[in-house]
Amino acid sequence: MNTVTVRANMAESESLETITEHERILQEIESTDTACVGPTLRSVYDDQPNAHKKFMEKLDARIRNHDREIEKMCNFHHQGFVDAITELLKVRADAEKLMGQVSDTNRRLQDAGREVTAQTEEVIRCRIQQRNMATTVERLQLCIPVLEMYSKLKEQLELKRYYSALKTMEQLENTYIPRVSQYRFCQIMAEMLPKLREEIKEISMSDLKDFLESIRKHSDKIGETAMRQAQQHRTFNSEVQKQVTLSCAKPMYGRTPLHHNGLSAEAADEEEMDEEVLTAQDLVDFSPVYRCLHIYTVLGDRETFENYYRKQRKKQARLVLQPQSNMHETVEGYRKYFNQIVGFFVVEDHILHATQGLVTRAFTDELWNMALSKIIAVLRTHSSYCEDPDLVLELKNLIVIFADTLQGYGFPVNRLFDLLFEVRDQYNETLLKKWALVFRDIFEQDNYSPIPVENEEEYKAVVSRFPFHDAEIEKQQFPKKLPMSQSVPQIYSQVKEFIYASLKFSESLHRSSTEIDDMLRKSTNLLLTRTLSSCLQNLIKKPHIGLTELVQIIINTTHLEYACKYLEDFITNITNVSPETVHTTRLYGLSTFKDARHAAEGEIYTKLNQKIDEFIQLADYEWGMAESDGRASGYLMDLINFLRSTFQVFTHLPNNNKDHAAMSGKVAQTACMSACKHLSTSLMQMLLDTELKQISMGAIEQFNLDVIQCELFASSEPVPGFQGDTLQLAFIDLRQLLDLFMVWDWSTYLADYGQPTSKYLRVNPSTALALLEKVNRGMKDTSKKNNIFTQFRKNDRDKQKLIETVVKQLRSLVNGMSQHS
């Protein structure tokens, strides 16, 4: 029973739970949206097996409950509904009447409202226009500044104010255009700005090119102005220094110092003060460079501009440094060349200091070093073509001014001053060539005779030009003669002129007095040892210079040699450098004039010998004559007379000076001895001539007569000063040879041969053999002519045998001598 109860309680409990669950499901279905009912209904099927049936029963019960509630409600409100319908039917008639009235009113309102509507639409349209106008004004107020800036930009472009135009563009891009960027015209503006920038770049670059072309054309004028100012400054300083020097010491050069153009220092100073000082800015407008630099800087392309400018200037530098082919012909060619270079670097120096970084000091130094190398090479080449010393001197002055000008702008110019030493050598060479012509003209116009002086004035005129001092001549009465010829004082004066000319080059070289002194002495030595020495040598070798002229040349060189010490004093007075200075160069005039004297003496001997040869060529011996004429040959007497007259010229030279007397005596003695020796040798060669095959004894006798005349001439002392028979010894070889044949003393000759006391010591066996063979052939030929069909006479046969015996002995002596040697 308990079990049944429990089960009953459990069943009852389960039934209550099921009913509760169904109530919950029904409430969810009633309160939930239809789309969400599915999950709720699915839970019904998920419960106990009979739950669906019980749920359907519960659902039916709920439906019937709702139907009853609806029926109750309808019954409750039905009478009200009926009353409402009745009332509504009553109202319909009034509504129809009201509807008619409303329609009539609506019609009348429609008619009245049409005009209001039209006016309203007009008002609306006006309001829209007003609003649009306000918007337009507002937008125009934003656009007008843009347009004004753009108009300003166009105006700046027209006025070529490109830098300001770029600033305006920058404002347009950054400030104004962004405010109205939605408008098409602004977009067009924005697209035009880069093109305008490029256009500005092109225009500014075109202006720069015009500027570069302009400075290329004006560089000559710029350089001329800069060099003139530098020259005026240097001249002013030089004049001030000279005034100080003149006030403190004696003049350095022995001449009145003058301004370069003949003006005094004060006049030059006034001229410099009166003349307006022009600069590169006064001659060239540099604004294109500044403008272009600013433009490219603003555009952020400064580096491109700098590279372009430097590249173009390098090209222009190469063009400027290229000289004209005929530049060396005139000083104007050099001046124009220097002006262009100075103008170029003056412009670069201005650009360097007026701009920040367009050109740098390193760039200008690079340009200058390149230019300096080219300038030096050009000047070396073209100066070598200059043959006019005045042109070379003007070139030197131009180089100095050129160097001073560029040094004033900070460019190093030491290499230019080093180049001047090379130009100085060239200048000296041209001077030497010029003075060679001067010396040649002096020598050609000289009469090579002592200078006659008629009175004291003429004497002083000569002495003022040449340092001549001779106490004996000064004591003589006028008229009198000075030992040297006219060329001596002229040569001395020209050497001094050469020193002055050489000194001109040393001015303004910033060198010490010692260096200038050394330069002058070296150049003077070159003049003496090369130019004057060469002119003297050529003069001595000229064919029209006779013996008298040669003697006078010897005297002249002696006086010039004596004057060398005065030339050294002259240089000392110019440079104020003591000759006792350790490094002072000495003049080499002594050796120069000594060499010239020796050459003149040698030429005297040579000309004498040549004259002797000319006379000997006139000799016409009849080598087969039977006997002599009994008198000397005519050619030989003429030769002796010529020698006598010639040596009389030597003896009649002015000997009032001991040195002159000793010199002329020595020359005369040497010349006389040389002439006698040459005559003796020539006569010996005539006898031994290989083309002469035979000689008769009559020819030997005639030849002996000629030699006797020569010996008489030598013994007559044609030139004083010979001791004893010194001059006759020149003919001793001929005399012993002829005596041997004339006496026919062969036994003595052969017996005493080789003995120091031999009578015929000077007769060589080979010489005796050669002449004996010729005499032998002559005797045979004579015998054949006299005895064609007969035998030799006994005397002739004996003589012939003797000759053959002597010939054999002579040949044995000759062979013995050859074996011994």
TrEMBL record:
Residues 58-227 form the Exocyst complex component EXOC6/Sec15 N-terminal domain. It comes from the Eukaryota. GO terms for cellular component: exocyst; plasma membrane. Residues 416-774 form the Exocyst complex subunit EXOC6/Sec15 C-terminal domain. GO terms for biological process: Golgi to plasma membrane transport; intracellular protein transport; vesicle tethering involved in exocytosis. InterPro entries: EXOC6/Sec15, EXOC6/Sec15_C, EXOC6/Sec15_C_dom1, EXOC6_Sec15_N, EXOC6PINT-1/Sec15/Tip20_C_dom2. Keywords: Exocytosis, Transport. Pfam families: EXOC6_Sec15_N (PF20651), Sec15_C (PF04091). Belongs to the SEC15 family. Component of the exocyst complex involved in the docking of exocytic vesicles with fusion sites on the plasma membrane. PANTHER family: EXOCYST COMPLEX COMPONENT 6 (PTHR12702:SF2), SEC15 (PTHR12702). This is Exocyst complex component. It comes from Carassius auratus (Goldfish). The lineage of its organism: Eukaryota, Metazoa, Chordata, Craniata, Vertebrata. The gene is LOC113111920.
